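Bumping with the actual sequence this time:
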Amino acid sequence: MRTDRILLACTLVLISACVAAGKPRWQLGPFTRPVSSPVISPLKASLFNDPIAKTPVHWESLHTFNPAAIVRDNKIYVLYRAEDDSGTMQIGNHTSRLGLASSTDGVTFTRQAEPVFYPAKDSQQSREWPGGVEDPRIVESDDETDPDQRYVLTYTQWNRVSYSIGIATSPDLQHWTKHGPAFLHAANGKYDTLKYKSGGIVTELKHDHLVAAKINGSYWMYWGEISIRLATSPDLVHWTPVEDANGNPIEVLTKRPGHFDSGFPEVGPPPVLTSNGIVVLYNGKNDPDRGDPTLGANAYAAGQALFDPRNPAHLISRDDAPTLKPEQPYEKTGQYIAGTTFAEGLVRFHSQWFLYYGCADSAVGMVKSH
């Protein structure tokens, strides 16, 4: 324990020294916008024969947003949430599916004509229909012995009554196996009826790929909105929340008055284990009464927090100002009228960071950094 305290103190001294010297800090970035328009926007004409409704649907006609991202075959692949034109014109009342698009430069994308992940007549239909599959995050597995689980997806299962973090795996981003809710049967079924969303599995950079990282022999996931919590897993599929002495999920990041996260924080893309610690990019909702006066009421902006690499529950440092906030017209208005830059997809590509985010629940934007 004494050695860990010394290492933590040295880390804090190093971070303070870097800031004082004007050197790069522990945060990823700074990020800049290489283009002043979304990189993925809705397509009215796209059709998909829905296996449940048994009818053609305009599956990406209304909104395309909140993306996951991964590097494969020297391309960036983005899994993006797409909403069809069914239901009433209200957030959460359309059906969401996940489209797949690829790019050789991270800016110009070629998308597939049909979704690759969607509600179907399978074991998860009751959890995913009619609301759909939403807000993905994706990581590459470090286990090379099971090629069928090379990629691990966390996403929101939404049936318009309840929601949970679903887990799915794939060998190729095209064919998926759904494993059900992340916490199903954990702690003797204690969390089976819990409503929860937004799961980011901790990764580390290996050969320019973000790969799931083990810490103290386990995989870790930061999860949740309102407050951010932790879970662990032996296999990236079955997860158990980390609890406090009273048997409640521990809270590792909470809201702060006067800041961009004054309403609440919510997990962003998969966190990254670095030499300084675990960098957690997260989304903050601005409280209309006690928030950041430079941001709009209820707007979402993205910030960063640093956690101890040996103890993922221990917060070391946290941004006062957002890393990314709504500035462009397409970020400030859309389906979500208060505006969002909702970060969910992060990759390292050609020695640069590419961050993909949802713009006002309507389109996909991108920023990048060295």
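The tokens above came from a reply further down the thread. The CA atoms of residues 300 and 340 lie 5 Å apart.
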